[in-house]
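QA checklist item 7 of 12: single-chain prediction sanity check.
[x] sequence parsed
[x] length recorded as 557
[x] structure emitted
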Amino acid sequence: MEEEAVKKSLNFIEEIVEKDLKEGKNDSRLQTRFPPEPNGYLHIGHAKAICMDFGIAQRYGGICNLRFDDTNPSKEDVEYVDSIQEDIKWLGFEWGNVYYASDYFQQLWDLAVQLIKEGKAYVDEQSAEEIAKQKGAPTTPGIESPYRNRPIEENLALFAKMNTGEVPEGAMVLRAKIDMASPNMHFRDPIMYRIITSHAHHRTGTEWKAYPMYDYAHGQSDYFEGVTHSICTLEFVVHRPLYDWFIDQFANSDYRPRQYEFNRLNITYTVMSKRKMLQLVQEGVVAGWDDPRMPTICGLRRRGYTPSAIRDFIDRIGYTKVDGMIDVSLLEHSIREDLKPQAHRVSALFDPIKLVITNYPEGQKEYMTTDNNPDNEEAGTRQMPFSKEIYIERGDFMEDAPKDFYRLTPGGREVRLKSAYIIQCTGCEKDEDGNITTVYCTYDPTTKSGSEGSKRKVKSTINWLDKDGCISAEVRLYDRLFKVEDPAAYDGDFHDLLNENSLEVKTALVEKHLEGAQPGDHFQFLKIGYFTVDKDSQDGKLILNRTVSLKDNWAKK
């Protein structure tokens, strides 16, 4: 029964892998690959693929290689290569080998020449528009190119010419000769090679002028490397027959890589399109690829998300064969759960007001012991300075308060200062404009936290900072970038959907010991949310990003 329960918990790809290994397929060898194109920064959708490709290899004692599908020099850059490797390592995975599709340019070229010699490929001199028009529709056969039956020798000469630099971009392509009447549109003489001369390749420079298309290069690269399970997202289901067809033309053994597809990750209130994300960056809507509002892995990292929280989120949503939309609140739940036992609890005041304890001895200073994290005993304690003058949050005081207001009000109920004393408000002071500047209270010296007197029950506990025990910090309050759940479904200008309140910058008072905090350090601001030190922080200028609020503030919207 126990074994049965384990099996039921497997996703469908794990079931396939276990079956293949049990049956001894590919000599009981498991090899996957993660194949990003280095044309942008990875986002959380890629994280799902990373967790699958690397995770499944890790789980079953296989190997996962990293391969950059760098077949389009007009969009690719070494900057993206470096960032992709950094993100994978940060997520907690290690690759077996690093490969590039460009490693195989000569092999792919030679195989294309072989196809031409076998009468299975030809050079087409039509425009992209003409070719697209002739492909027809799923229910209507396509029209053959006038160049489809040109002689093999002529095709060979023209193909060679495509790589000399003599032929301008778009003037010629190499197409596979398959079936212009096939119900699978991808079989209607797909393009194998196109010319790109406007950009040098980040690895091969200007050596090549003709570059292979994804559908041709991808499967062959898998085959060259010995991939057993080529795992990708559902949009490639219709590409699978072509993937298999190309491999079948060149394979010289019984071995075949097999393609399997899972549902891609779509999250509410964001976009996953690289084009749209690039637009946001170029237009200055966000402050770069690592802006904490972006769904990029580097953006999530800067915001304060942890690798374990992202992996937990991916594990929660699972892998299926049906696309859907995942509520971003589930991702936020994962980071809350991850930070709860590790982030130190600290006091932070966004709208501070001075509080004077009138009966506290003048010039006296003592130190209050407070837990760093009540959910984690190993986190220990720290000492907070306490004196006659402290600060509290303005919202914790009300001059004319209703009966159900349990915090400070003149003549009102007793209130506990967290980890300190019980106090009672006696009045307040205002400036000429009627703004409250100071709150006055008395304290009961027998109620110090940890003493017998502290056990007295009160309705409310408030946070505070000593006037000499705090520093000023810049706090960036990040929120969802878009106002609607599915901005990708909007037909109009997606800029119309941007949340104008996605970033609010405030100044807050925080505990003085935070001045030594380093970028990436996590804290929970008591009663407010989780915050992470930003990389822009410098000596004397502390900057924190809100990672997530304590509760889902959008639940009632």
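[x] summary fact logged: The CA atoms of residues 419 and 450 lie 8 Å apart.
[ ] second reviewer sign-off
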